[in-house]
Amino acid sequence: MEIGLLQSIILGIIAFIAGLDLYNGLTHFHRPVVLGPIVGLVLGDLQTGILVGGTLELVWMGLAPLAGAQPPNVIIGTVVGATFAITTKTDPTVAVGVAVPFAIAVQMGITFLFSIMSAVMSRCDQMAEDANLKGIDYVNYFGLLVLGTFYFFCAFLPVYFGAEHAGKIIEMLPKQVIDGLGVAGGIMPAIGFAVLMKIMMKNVYIPYFILGFVAAAWLQLPVLAIAAAATAMAIIDYMRKGTETVEVKKEEFEDGI
After folding, report:
1. Residue 204 to residues 172, 177, 208, 210, 213: CA-CA distances in angstroms?
2. pLDDT tens per residue across span 93-131
3. How far from the centroid of its chain's Cα atoms is residue 57's Cα?
4. Is the pTM here over 0.85, yes or no?
5. Are both 61 and 79 inside the same structural domain?
6. Is-contact 77 167, C-beta < 8 A?
7. Domain count, the chain
8. Looking at the structure, do residues 83 and 120 belong to the same domain, yes or no?
9. Does 168 share its domain with 227?
10. 250: buried, middle or exposed (CB in 10 Å: 19+, 13-18, 0-12)?
């Protein structure tokens, strides 16, 4: 599948907007589960876009930027991964293995870009002392423009110039390499979940984890059925805690305390 100039520009604009959302908008437009279907819609393969976006969302779900520790860039990883899967007709797990190296490289570039922009902060401090609000606004707008433009080219260049050769490269690669990328891509969602569980896992959640594992691994229930059961458990737990709160307040009132 060949990707035209207009499609590449549209994907670049999408990356531009998502890049601003990642650090400023925070509307979650930049998440793979949102970007993947949009990329698929632009390239005419919505189903693959949804599959790749959902798979990559599992990878990045537990990865959060903390100061200087930045995870691989979620936006370029999604755009490149979804584009790769659509143009080469490969499995989404293989696309994950291809997307992550791009995401790491772009995040290194963004960190370098932020390091350069940090030199402007002293100038902004001086503007703040002088009450130069317009100057501060201009610096912020300039920073957003530079960041968005960086995202645009990071998405546009590999999509427009690389998509044409991606299929040929896949055909040249040995089957063992493709299988290896698929295995690596399949492991990454598990790593993402492991990181997420390390952050939020508590002893009270362990029984729910075991139930979910039994339902998925042994009973082999569909994901939708497991999600519905988990939703019911969450509602029951919420209602039970709400009832306990009401009873405690009632007892306190009756005791006159």
Report:
1. 50, 42, 8, 11, 16
2. 777 777 777 787 888 888 788 778 878 888 888 888 888
3. 5
4. no
5. yes
6. no
7. 2
8. yes
9. no
10. exposed
